[in-house]
């Protein structure tokens, strides 16, 4: 999970604070992240039978660390940063 958070997630979420995410985009991001996590954690061996991990197993392993929640948190942080800017800055004028 440490590798995922330090290498894959930053590449996927680069500049995500300014994205306009639709429900379709959010769904595609969730699907992509689950595919990567399934490959990272690998299949489950139960009685010498291999199977792909289901979504609940992945959620338990990742402690519900979802990419869409991460993007939402980054947006809130970015908005706070802009609100602390001087009123004369162009970014602040645009938001106001």
What does this structure look like?
The structure is a single chain. By secondary structure, this protein is mostly helical. The protein has one domain. The chain has 5 helices and 2 strands, in the order ααββααα. Strands 1-2 form a two-stranded antiparallel ribbon. β1 (44-46) and β2 form a beta hairpin. The chain is elongated and about 65 Å long. The N and C termini lie far apart (38 Å). The mean pLDDT is 88.
| Count of structural domains | 1
Give the helix level as a range of percent. Answer: 55-70%
In whole angstroms, how far apart are the ends? 38 Å
Given the helix and strand composition, which structural class is it? mainly alpha
Order of helices and strands: HHEEHHH
Q: What is the residue-averaged pLDDT?
A: 88
* Global shape: elongated
Beta-strand segment tally: 2
Rg on CA atoms, Å: 18 Å
Biggest sheet details = 2 strands, antiparallel
List the helices and strands and how they pair.
Elements: H1 2-12, H2 23-41, E1 44-46, E2 49-51, H3 55-62, H4 67-83, H5 90-95
Antiparallel strand pairs: 1-2
């Amino acid at each position: 999970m440490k590798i995922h958070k330090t290498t894959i997630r930053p590449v996927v979420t680069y500049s995500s604070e300014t994205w306009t995410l639709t429900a379709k985009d959010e769904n595609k991001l969730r699907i992509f992240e689950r595919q990567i996590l399934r490959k990272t954690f690998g299949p489950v061996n139960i009685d010498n039978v291999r199977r792909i991990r289901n979504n609940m197993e992945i959620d338990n392993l990742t402690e519900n660390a979802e990419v869409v929640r991460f993007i939402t948190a980054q947006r809130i942080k970015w908005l706070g940063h802009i609100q602390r800017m001087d009123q004369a800055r162009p970014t602040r004028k645009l938001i106001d």
